[in-house]
Model the fold of this input.
Amino acid sequence: MILKNIVSILEDDIKTAIYHISKKNLENVSFQKTRDEFNGDFTFLLFQYFAPNEFFEIGNKLGLWLKENSSIVDDFEIVKGFFNISIKSEILLQCFNESICSDFGHQKKNGKKLLIEYSSPNTNKPLHLGHLRNNFLGFAMSSIFDAAGYDVTQVCLVNDRGIHICKSMVAYKTLGNGTTPESENIKGDHFVGNYYVLFDKIYREQIAELKSQGYDEEYAKKNAPAILEAQDLLEKWERGDEETLALWEKMNQWVYKGFDETYKKINIHFDKIYYESKTYLLGVDIVLDGLKKGIFYLKDDKSIWVDLTDAGLDNKLLLRGNGTSVYITQDLGTADLRYEEIQPDKMIYVVGDEQNYHFNVLKAITHKLDKPYSEKIYHLSYGMVDLPSGKMKSREGTVVDADDLIDEMREKAKEKTLELGKSFDEKFYDMIGLGALKFFLLKVNSQKRMMFDPNKSINFQGDTASFIQYNFVRIQSLFRKNDNIETAIDKDLTLEKIERKVIFEILEYPEKILDAAASCDPSIIAQYVLSLTRNFSKMYEQVSILKEEDNKKKNLRLTICQMCGFVIKDAMKILGIDVPDQM
Done:
């Protein structure tokens, strides 16, 4: 028996009991987990179905009927409009005993394919804090879907072409003087990113100069020499100009090398990498074909557009009059290519919420084109990450660099650990620091904008990864002292309240994975493992484990601890976080 079976039986028993005592025929019944301050495992909400003056009488009749007739109900308690139900200990222990297996929580493969795109960096700057949230969300959701039974393909689309790339190239051509990342002793992505910042500085100065000559701001922005040169470079790139392509290739290779170092630090990998420079032409073909079929239309300046007003959107540019493409062009080509190669049942894009409109447009266009994957596109939208110091802006050089932040987190982990009188190697501090960063960014619902404070992310007694890691170490220490656990659990034992709580929480793990997959929300797993760890910590403090004289109780408690450790380690692995054996 699994927890889902218990819930199903309880639903049927309550509906039967309600009909027996009141003749009400309820199609559905609503109940929830009982709050910690009350006795019970599940709470039936009497106030949803009965008047306040009926609570006590109906509740008593309901409880007595369930105790006499239900195969799983042991006792009940009435607190105003809340009817708290305790499940028989032997049923809980039977369910718990059946959960002790190596793949607990993970579903059998369901035959469905899922593609998830995340990271999607631009080759004009290094990864920053926002990219970290993106990567951690993408990896966690990939792991969650894998645990939920899907065949998952993790992909990355590198934005390696476009006006923003040309801006870095213009600045390097102007100010680079032949320097390289090696000659300057700097990571390649940082090296190129510095020139992106320099371009913005040059561009602003030129705008100010034109405005001082009497031109308005709009004219100045469009006619500043730097932006005109960047636009010219983009046209040369799309025409295949050899000199332009050579510079573009050289600068991109510097960036890729830098990206690889960062991905290695955060333990991120992809099954397949797509490049916008290779997929945008596929999108151009799709647009031209749509024009021939009358799905799109041509303006006087030769630009190609689509009318999406019937989908509640507006008219959208698909191809500029000079033949250069826009973001949606390459996304059309990439989606087509991926569907042809992988045939996924769902395509998930992990992209910030500033692109909500873009993905509504993508779905609407593919629907107009009658693409078979139109309804399979899902935008996992996430809020931006702010810092106590304010919003990040890449072009102004105020962005929080991922590499610097990771190094800072390692140092904070070291500092906090030394404060506790402990000392470990650098790999340990990397584990604690990176774990703190990942958990802090994943424990909040992805759609929410959030504030990241490094100083609050490492706390061995807080709502943090380090708290979870510390308690996992506690569990491991129990088994270094006593590894003699019997495989069978005595089902006649009476459970303490905290033992029931922990067992119930362990049994919820499979459903939490399915919930997280259905909601595309890793915070469900993060909050679950945090709650489980809190309750284990309470059990560790409230009941005797190794010093328990009753061997049957001792065996049960050690088994509960063992399963807690298994679930904590597995859930943290799903989130991309390692747990240490010692601390």
